[in-house]
């Protein structure tokens, strides 16, 4: 029966179930003490702060939906074609002009029917007397406009379906690039970017990713009526970068925190390169040696990347210089509060002006080879009270912790999510 159910589950979902089965297997293999602890982990529909039990029958039931709006069998379905209007569709199904009029005046929600477009579906229920008793018009994956006949009047409403969430896992070890490892782990492009985004304050995705680095994450998959409609949030993730482990847990506020409750978000990004562009361009920095001869003592970090790669402000601040000279090429300096200054040199083109306020992550220019350079790169400097520091290792201001009143709840969640990640690791090991 289970097998039969699984066949009807979308492929991604099936994989998740495979993983869950493996969890069950591992639970059986673990010493009893640990089984006890692990059984309390959240797996199904993982909503931070809410309890779920892990069991196979639960998963199977997720594909049989309880809250369908209507039995599609009782309805005539009409796929909207180019040039179709409500009137022409109704006419085709032998409904009167008066019905068309009444339906179109069935309240505010009914106005949506003016916006039908090719490919949309309309479902009509017509009784034996040829009277339209109900119309269903799915607006999105989760919302449907309903028009129902009641006391010789049409009434419109929009109903929203439940989105079912299940948690799936991904894990990978970097062999050639983070991007490849992500794809191999079954992640979507967006998820790979999100993962990099979560750790972008701690890890320099532009230049510090090494072979052997690994990641492990739990993420939501969204289902409506048993159909996979897309990925939800990453709910917990771990990234091991050159031996350092970083863990992020999503809390109910949607933000990510360390297991101790410190925000992942910090005043400065680890690298001022738009990691999205960088990661997806699959660029290998080892192939580039942009600066062979250094004219003066090197007081910054060089980022080699394709010309045109967006360079971003590593923190919120004010542009105190945006200019050109023959050494720096096109350059931008940003002041962050009293203490910190960041400098960005050799742009192909600047994207900000002197005096402008910029936000962390905002593009301030595009990587180039202007000024005294031997190859395209970004030269980045980080100054604390006017003294040059290594931006990769400098001690940065401590991030804001989670509210004291919510700390206990968060810590509980964090522990469970970490259990989840650890279980995933064991499964993957067992599968190897
Ligand atoms: Zn440099």
UniProtKB/TrEMBL annotation:
Pfam families: Csd3_N2 (PF19425), LysM_OapA (PF04225), Peptidase_M23 (PF01551). Residues 76-124 form the LysM domain. Keywords: Hydrolase, Metal-binding, Metalloprotease, Protease, Zinc. It is found in: Cell envelope. Its cofactor is Zn(2+). InterPro entries: Cell_wall_metabolism_enzyme, Csd3_N2, Dup_hybrid_motif, LysM, LysM_Opacity-associatedA, M23ase_b-sheet_dom. This is OapA family protein. It comes from Agaribacter flavus.
